[in-house]
Automatic annotation (TrEMBL):
InterPro entries: 2C_sensor_his_kinase, HATPase_C_sf, HATPase_dom, His_kinase_dom, HisK_dim/P_dom, HisK_dim/P_sf. Residues 180-192 have a biased composition (Basic and acidic residues). One of its GO terms (molecular function) is kinase activity. It comes from the Bacteria. Keywords: Cell membrane, Kinase, Membrane, Phosphoprotein, Transferase, Transmembrane, Transmembrane helix, Two-component regulatory system. Residues 209-410 form the Histidine kinase domain. Its main location: membrane. The chain crosses the membrane at residues 128-151. Residues 165-193 are annotated as: Disordered. The keyword Transmembrane applies. Coiled coil: none annotated. It is an enzyme of class 2 (transferase). This is histidine kinase.
Amino acid sequence: MGMRGRIALAISLVVALTVVVFGFAVHATCGVVHAQQAHARDQQNGLLTSALQKYRRDGTLAPGARLDDSALPEPLADAAWKEGTATFVSGGSAPQVWAAARVDGKVLSLSASYAPQGDPLQSALDRALVPVGAMTAALLAVAGWFTAYGLSRRLRLDAVPARRIAAGTPPDPRPVADGGRAETAEPPERHPATPLATRAAVDRELTAGMAHELRTPVTGLVAAAELLPHPRAVEMVRDRAQAMRSLVEALLEISRLDAGQEQARCEPVDLASLVRDTVSRVARESGAGEAAAASVSVVGEGRIVETDAGRVVRVLEILLHNAARHGASPIEVTLRGSSIAVRDHGPGFPRELLDHGPRRFRTGAPDRGTGHGLGLTIAVGQAEVLGARLRFHNPSDGGAAAVFELPETRTCS
């Protein structure tokens, strides 16, 4: 199977696996069995109340009621003695629903057979997921085939000079026809670093191209989620699709940073006001679970700097979210001159990050959460666009600290 077929097959398999996982998750979380059990328990509890009233009124047992029944499940008997009344659903080949209560030093109990039935809504949802999943997988397989055609064509063209370089033969100086694409139409230079730079440029375009191609089906998946009949299914599919969309947007931002397409625009910025406003907004948007405990302190006088306010906010947002997600409160933001420090009191940065810096899709340790390592990579890239410096270290008294040092002089256009 050629590269086009492999890429298309990989895309379709990933989509099919995602649909299967969503289907099992929706099926498992619909809660039909629990709802039926709760309904059966309530019914049996109502019958038990009537039986108790009859027994206390005239001392007789209602139909089906028993005193100190020998078949009474032991957990139910213990619960009835401790709590006064209790319900229980027994398993086995003939499940039963029980209700029992303590009365006059004895246990009055009722039982009935319990046979859970399928839920029509859940059955309809299961039937709807199959055609929707099959249609989505088929459409994305076709889209993947055409996407893979363009990607594999460029890779095949690049493989010719790559094989010559690997064999120690100088690359062919003649341009390679590629429909006018600049990175493959230009002849390779004699400098040994040029093939590596060309390859890096191709990799950047490949990442950007894949992110652009994935954006459309992910957007369609978000819209398709609204067509599912069950609100819980809509919520689950939408959350996962939103996560995929956030990942694609992060990849696009990284590809622009790698390609040098980002340029900073300077304007006078009051750093103290900018930092306070950003911390407050992140706390409001994130709620109590993230960045809500961040405190801001300004050392010395506030400073007006010439910089790109939007990129400063972007870096600060990433540092706040990272501290809240992987660290622990309290989170402290300290502004000293043109330097912004964000510190948490969690386990600290992993050693790999301190030694080599942030790396995409590398979080440094398996227990660092569910991130992709893209946030801090973007923060470092945005800092470089500003001509700033972003340093990471673990203070001696615990926690993790990221120091964002803006340049003293104007470095943007």
